[in-house]
């Protein structure tokens, strides 16, 4: 095991320095009609080149892969979760712990440490994907990596989502990680104008080319996100912001995603496959708001922002150099203008995984659970406050 | 860098029309990064010392970073919001510092929401995140693992660092239980293995004093410690005495708690009779009788006799012989319970007896005390072993003598009878060379107690099925384990004894499980599944007072299926344990 720790950082360090040892970024001519025009992914901050490119990973198994020979066999229960503090990540961690995995979480060093992960029984290791030298040590003794990290919207998108992921995948390859699970976004191949989706798509390809044993899971939307966005404001009688976009998203419960993920991981037939997880039904923003209103029993104070304004803002912010970051953030509005449907028929996937479709929670049920629980809690609070009134 | 340059050159023709735009794009990116730091810096300054900012205008200097057009856009939105809010003025409201701060907050809020619309992923602010987590992830009812009642329950996990114990601890934490862990040494290694909010108690199950501290404040115990070696001393200490020590300490703790409330522990047994002195035999009455009253039977009578006496060794012995066909002798007493106690709060009897291994019939007479003619008889057959043993007889195993009578109501029980009859006696295997006369008996009585009822199990013990143990040591290991199980069974605590097949270290929930009684299983099982059963059993009424074997489902060869085995697939969505256990025997 010592050997792994000592050897690998040097390998990756050289890889980073020359970007030649294990993989190359070759810039391939792309037809002008294709959509790589706006992309300028730079590999490291140090390299001052600017290019349009398509990622190609040539880290074949014949080169650069360190084979350490037969050692102590690695238990398949040793997994590393990257991004364990996120909405999906924490459900993955919980699910894994409950199923008896030994879970290690890679989290960024931060002043307020992610104590809840440790409270659940996971081991937390500190590393930063944007500092590749911190990665290798965290992979020692790991069988499977589950990568559900995504950069926060407020930080430059490329540090974690591209450079960090590339470093992580390289490192996983070099250290002989046996399975890599990557979460991507549905339709990411169709919307290269959105930086995050473009990066996810490139990462998918990079992972495929790396030769790692992997599963790519494309996701549509999380039900958990809707609570903060619509349900809470409606209950608090605050204004709800929505768009008039015709885009439909098949929201899914992150607990279901986590459950299906582990079924997929254990199924060796799914190695190298691309799976898309979608919820039972696709919803527009307006439909979700209406549903919330019905369940909460009160009308929402909806502020509808036309997608055209969002687009306009994005266009304008793109115009100025210093607001480009803002533009990146608003990039999803480009997708919103099209009436794309973020959904796929799941029958085949259910079949493949051996899951019953009725075990997957619907948005109606999910929100209903939420509102009944919350309204009950509010009622209890009211009852309590009434009781104290008596003493006046 | 070189590669990049050449590549750019090679493709420049293709991109010539976009080159200009692109380079500007890239330059802007660099600037943007620089600005990003700047923005960040300013933002944090605002947060830390808001008064330092210029308070005179509603739109603060942060707007400089945002495009002009966009600013107008946002202002528009902001105006909409402001119009909606009722206007009330006070001296505080016109304070310029306050105004500036509030308008800034408002702007931030509006901008956050606005920009949120155009994003795929959203950051939830930390305070929101906390509130949501509480409901959706941690203890809320929306959480997949949530168990009502978990929050008020403290579980002691004994052997928390074992293969099963580790997972048990995690599962308990996920479900919101308070967890105590008994470990032998608190090394860094051990502490790292356990979640941080687990309360660690250092101690050894073999040492009653340390165990005492461990059970302090606990509601339930999961025992997954096992001897590290097959050395007899280890086995005795951990698998046998360890369980005994814990049950004892736990009962003591329950009693102590009950005493502090000036009551009696609902988990302690009720003493019905204790045979410690000559006077304790008072009230017990020896009777004899026959089932047949015909002349033919009496003609072949060999006679019968029985006596109940207190010997010099300090034993209360009920002994005698019945040579009559259809004859019986019995020992009977009217029960006198302490004031305020009724048997309906108990679920059965436990007898501590010794003797020569005959079987007996326990008979309870129930009915209103005032009118003995209305009494009904209920019986249950018990078998004893050669030497001392404890026999559990649940009230549910008593059947009415007249089949039409209603089921036994323990509240009405007033007389207890132990009957010996020569019918249906099985020869004891101990000393085959000696000729046994099955018509004679000897029963040494130590005590008779009533077992408390309860809904849930108090003590989950992970034992073993004996599979996968090295054959030369199997006998010894099983002996210690069974002794441990026995001491748990007679403690009066609600128990669940899980006997898994050989443990495998793999994720749980993958394969169907078989729950069975009677040492018939042949497969292994994953540690995680065993852990799941332990945790589920804590609140499952069907798990109380049961022992069962569990292993993976297996496919029997054709024609060799001995039993129909019902498999249960463990899944979080369904509760597999209740249906699986409800078909199994209780008090096993």
TrEMBL record, chain A:
Subcellular location: Plastid
GO cellular component, one term: photosystem II
Protein name as annotated: NmrA-like domain-containing protein
Alphabetized Gene3D superfamilies for the sequence: NAD(P)-binding Rossmann-like Domain
Principal location listed in the UniProt entry: plastid
Source organism per UniProt: Psophocarpus tetragonolobus
Keywords: Photosynthesis, Photosystem II, Plastid
Positions of the NmrA-like domain: 78-327
Domain of life of the source: Eukaryota
UniProtKB/TrEMBL annotation, chain B:
Stated name of the protein: Uncharacterized protein
Cited SUPFAM superfamilies: Galactose-binding domain-like, NAD(P)-binding Rossmann-fold domains
Region annotation (Disordered) ranges: 50-78
A Pfam family reported for this protein in Swiss-Prot or TrEMBL: CIA30
InterPro entries: Galactose-bd-like_sf, NAD(P)-bd_dom, NAD(P)-bd_dom_sf, NADH-UbQ_OxRdtase-assoc_prot30
Compositional bias segments (type: Basic and acidic residues): 61-76
NAD(P)-binding domain: residues covered: 159-255, 459-540
Signal peptide span: none
Positions of the NADH:ubiquinone oxidoreductase intermediate-associated protein domain: 302-402
Species per Swiss-Prot/TrEMBL record: Psophocarpus tetragonolobus
